[in-house]
DNA sequence: AAAAAAC
């Protein structure tokens, strides 16, 4: 539907948003069999001074139906003396009846997923400790922090008591949508603090004070409201950073995030801070555990992060010459879409806004319906394109890394990397390295909640081949090559092998 | 290079 020429672009886009992580589907459950507590080191039994215990939560999961992405062990390190028991049922969590009803009736959940089982007790048990939590894509992280926020709000009191900071507008909106559904029966109110349409822009000083209980938004708007004294943070009890590794990364939102965290911690007299993401590279991890020194931690080994039900492939899209063959990429994409349309929705990732536009134009002109989104679009168009895709009105969405993180759409079962994610710093240094974290997030747009999916990585050069090899090594996961031949069934077979079709 | 962002 979307006509590329029709979508206006703004010279300076200051919208933010992106979409979140777990949405509609049933959080399928993993069975928590045992939580054995092993004392760190060879500490003698009487050593009460030992502050840290390492709990190896060995978790066997039984994926009963189609859900259950998390196979691997997650390792939890607790701080302090509290012993947490994994929640087998939502009833184990002392939630209000309103929230229980929201989980079962509105969300349709049955039991906590693995990350929920492990993290929710840590979030909800006093004394309220900070938490850094890593879990697989599509494993239900959003539910963890949304439930955390809802549980800590007193609906009889007015004003902000919980806050969530996200990297993009789309993600903030998606998270708020989840919160509203889950909190449907609780009487808890929320607002989305993101840049609004330029037409209806109201300067901060003219806005009323925020009265809602929960504020979800992007760093700039949140900061603006805070400095404009329209967002009082004195009663904030819980502060969440979604996609926390990115929110705290150099070159990410580090400065904004630290500022916000510092101010709120001071104003509120110390509030609980939750950091959630599917990825934490070593640099961020070191920094993060410094930020939440006295907190609990949940981590997953990077080798265990790849989603089993999502099949990854690579396709050679260059011929003899060692330069990208855009034409060949288009042909391969067309092949993928031919069959992809039959199985569900497709997201195509590109590196730049310009490629998003160009690819959109090209595919459209060849009769392949698609839409595209990137940060230069005006907010109205961004919202419209997301809505159309979420409503299933469009099948193919071309995007920059705007949607790499958190975007949750169960029907997406094909992801195409038209360009591989490259670490910009290394690129500038002249020795390009892949951005493995972004790669993992892109892959995670499919296979939500244990569903099946396929990812096609288009290799435009020998360099791309080397990049993907580094990604394979990073995750210790070999990615098979699929023939690009236009005359055989390699692509179809790959889609079939992934369990689609 | 992507994203957020202002009055």
UniProtKB/TrEMBL annotation:
Its EC number is 3.6.4.13. Residues 1-31 are annotated as: Disordered. GO terms for molecular function: ATP binding; hydrolase activity; RNA binding; RNA helicase activity. A motif (Q motif) lies at residues 88-117. It holds the Pfam family DEAD. It comes from the Eukaryota. The keyword Aminoacyl-tRNA synthetase does not apply. Residues 335-490 form the Helicase C-terminal domain. Residues 88-117 form the DEAD-box RNA helicase Q domain. Keywords: ATP-binding, Helicase, Hydrolase, Nucleotide-binding, RNA-binding. Residues 1-15 have a biased composition (Basic and acidic residues). Residues 122-298 form the Helicase ATP-binding domain. This is RNA helicase. The lineage of its organism: Eukaryota, Viridiplantae, Streptophyta, Embryophyta, Tracheophyta. The gene is LOC120250693.
């Amino acid at each position: 539907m979307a006509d590329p020429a029709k979508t206006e672009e703004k010279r300076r886009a200051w919208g933010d948003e992106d979409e979140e992580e777990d949405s509609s589907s049933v959080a399928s459950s993993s069975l928590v069999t045992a939580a054995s507590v092993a004392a760190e080191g060879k500490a003698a039994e009487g050593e009460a001074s030992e502050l840290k215990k390492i709990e190896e939560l060995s978790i066997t999961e039984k994926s009963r139906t189609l859900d259950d992405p998390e196979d691997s062990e997650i390792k939890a390190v607790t701080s302090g003396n509290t012993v947490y028991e994994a929640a087998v049922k939502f009833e184990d969590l002392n939630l209000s009846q309103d929230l229980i009803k929201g989980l079962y009736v509105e969300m349709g959940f049955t039991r906590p997923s693995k990350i929920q089982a492990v993290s929710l007790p840590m979030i909800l048990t006093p004394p309220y400790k900070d938490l850094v939590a890593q879990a697989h894509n599509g494993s239900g992280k959003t539910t963890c922090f949304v439930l955390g926020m809802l549980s800590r709000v007193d609906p009889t009191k007015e004003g902000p008591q919980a806050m969530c900071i996200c990297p993009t507008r789309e993600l903030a909106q998606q998270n708020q949508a989840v919160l509203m559904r889950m909190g449907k029966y609780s009487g808890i109110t929320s607002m989305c603090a993101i840049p609004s349409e330029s037409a209806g822009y109201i300067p901060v000083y003219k806005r009323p004070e925020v009265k809602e209980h929960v504020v979800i938004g992007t760093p700039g708007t949140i900061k603006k409201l805070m400095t404009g004294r329209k967002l009082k943070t004195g009663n904030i009890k819980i502060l969440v950073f979604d996609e926390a590794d990115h929110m705290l990364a150099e070159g990410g939102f580090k400065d904004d995030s630290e500022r916000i965290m510092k101010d709120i911690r001071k104003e509120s007299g110390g509030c609980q801070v939750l950091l959630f993401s599917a990825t934490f590279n070593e640099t961020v991890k070191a920094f993060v555990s410094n930020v939440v020194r006295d907190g609990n931690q949940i981590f997953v080994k990077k080798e265990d992060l790849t989603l089993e039900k999502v099949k990854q492939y690579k396709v050679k899209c260059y011929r003899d010459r060692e330069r990208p063959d855009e034409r060949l990429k288009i042909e391969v994409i067309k092949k993928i879409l031919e069959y992809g349309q039959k199985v569900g929705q497709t997201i195509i990732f590109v590196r730049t806004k310009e490629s998003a536009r160009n690819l959109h134009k090209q595919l459209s002109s060849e009769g392949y319906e698609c839409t595209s989104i990137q940060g230069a679009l005006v907010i109205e168009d961004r919202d419209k394109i997301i809505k159309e895709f979420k409503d299933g009105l469009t099948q193919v969405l071309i995007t920059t890394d705007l949607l790499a993180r958190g975007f949750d759409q169960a029907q997406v079962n094909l992801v195409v990397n038209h360009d591989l994610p490259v670490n910009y710093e290394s690129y500038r240094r002249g020795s390009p390295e892949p951005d493995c974290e972004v790669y993992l997030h892109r892959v995670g747009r499919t296979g939500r909640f244990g569903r099946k999916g396929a990812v096609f990585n288009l290799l435009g050069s020998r360099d791309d081949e080397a990049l993907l090899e580094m990604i394979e090594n990073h995750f210790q996961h070999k990615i098979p090559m699929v023939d690009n031949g236009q005359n055989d069934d390699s692509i179809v077979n790959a889609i079939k092998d992934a369990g689609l079709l």
